[in-house]
Protein: Probable 2-phosphosulfolactate phosphatase
Organism: Proteiniclasticum sediminis
Amino acid sequence: MKINVITCADHVSPESVKGNTAVVVDTLRATSVIITAISHGAKSVVPMTSVEEALETKKKLENVVLGGERKARLIDGFDLSNSPKEYTASAVAEKNVVLTTTNGTKAIARSSSAARIFIGALRNARAVAEAAVAEERDAVIVNAGTGGEFSMDDFITAGAIIAHMLELKPAELTDVAKTALIIYETHRDLRSYIQEAHHYGVLEELGLSEDLDFCLQESVEDIVPEYKNGIIKQHF
């Protein structure tokens, strides 16, 4: 088994994930939102790369909640932002959540040639590692990044997932995967590392410290969402 990390969505090509198990990570905050929505009973999450696509998709589905952000802010006319705290059972249970975000939904779309696509974050790091190892094929952790650039928060999350994978099965790591693992192993106080990330600072300035606290909890969820045929549901 070989494990690789792709450091941002813009670096994903069909060839880089084809035939692999992909784990898409956007810790702050899209994949944390998806995990929370599925955990709270959402019928599905439908990721879209543009606001226009999201609005068109709403017309085709029943019981839709529109969620997402642009520049970390609520999109005009949408029901929910990209704050996982908003995706409560009362808001999303039995609903189809149509979601569009700046980075996370783009990373999911660009990973579509993978054999399986799981949704990962710190909150489900151990569970998603178990699901990836069970597939018994090479794995690639796709970091969404921020605005087409490397993001520290996603990178250390990749390291956490790799650490849990190695607890279950030996693997060959690429240099970038080894680096992510080293970063995780030497920064077990995750906040001390992640608070240096640019996107952390952006969210803090917007008064979203509760979101940061929520997203930085490690392995507190057993939920493993899977993207398949254009929608995300719980993996079984």
